[in-house]
User: Which sequence fits this backbone?
């Protein structure tokens, strides 16, 4: 799961996946802006078949948060 | 009043905000934050909102709640699926169409104060009042000062 999420983030945001780990902060480390974040959420939903509620988006601050969300909501 | 817009390149949001506060002679610059993180002046002397994209930063000021968004002209299919109704999606043909839709929705949600938590799909760009979009170079900027 961890590798799948990191690959998805690297591909969607066009970032070297070597720069991404569970502690990576999306805004501070990857300079993700709101458009990037929604792009990532859309890609995540398509990849994992899981819908992320709008109210939960602001809680996804680190790569670890996304991995945890994927694990908790995996079909 | 319509929002006044200040745009700069290569400075931080804080630097731009300080210069705007200087211009409006705001002495007490104590900031508070809404439930969803929107900053506001504790004194209520002025309403403002900030946005940045790349090295561009924009600040809108108004005598009522205001939202602003700046975005480089772009196209993201994942985002269309996530935030547009079918009717809206059908009308997006170019990167300019996409970016206009995005900045309008974002500025509305930021004016409201909930930002992305508002649910951008719930915002119909056809029904917006007191929203404006303009282009500066490769960027589109939208302001909104009425969420009714």
Assistant:
């Amino acid at each position: 799961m961890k590798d799948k999420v990191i690959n998805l983030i690297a591909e969607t945001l066009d970032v070297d996946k070597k720069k991404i780990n569970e502690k990576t902060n999306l805004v501070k480390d990857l300079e993700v802006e709101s458009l990037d974040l929604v792009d990532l959420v859309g890609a995540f939903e398509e990849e994992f078949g899981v819908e992320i509620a709008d109210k939960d988006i602001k809680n996804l601050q680190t790569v670890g948060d996304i991995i945890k969300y994927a694990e908790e909501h995996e079909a | 009043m319509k929002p006044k817009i200040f745009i700069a390149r290569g400075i931080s949001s804080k630097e731009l905000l300080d210069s705007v506060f200087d211009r409006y002679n705001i002495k007490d610059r104590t900031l508070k934050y809404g439930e969803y993180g929107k900053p506001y002046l504790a004194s209520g002397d002025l309403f403002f909102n900030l946005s940045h994209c790349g090295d561009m930063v924009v600040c809108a000021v108004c005598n009522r709640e205001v939202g602003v968004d700046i975005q480089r002209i772009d196209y993201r299919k994942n985002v269309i699926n996530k935030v547009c109704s079918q009717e809206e999606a059908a009308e997006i043909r170019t990167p300019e169409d996409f970016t206009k839709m995005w900045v309008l929705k974002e500025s509305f949600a930021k004016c409201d104060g909930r930002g992305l938590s508002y649910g951008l799909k719930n915002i119909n760009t056809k029904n917006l009042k007191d929203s404006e979009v303009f282009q500066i170079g490769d960027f589109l900027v939208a302001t909104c000062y009425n969420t009714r």
User: Anything to note?
Assistant: The mean pLDDT of chain A is 90. Residues 11 and 17 of chain A are 8 Å apart (CA to CA).
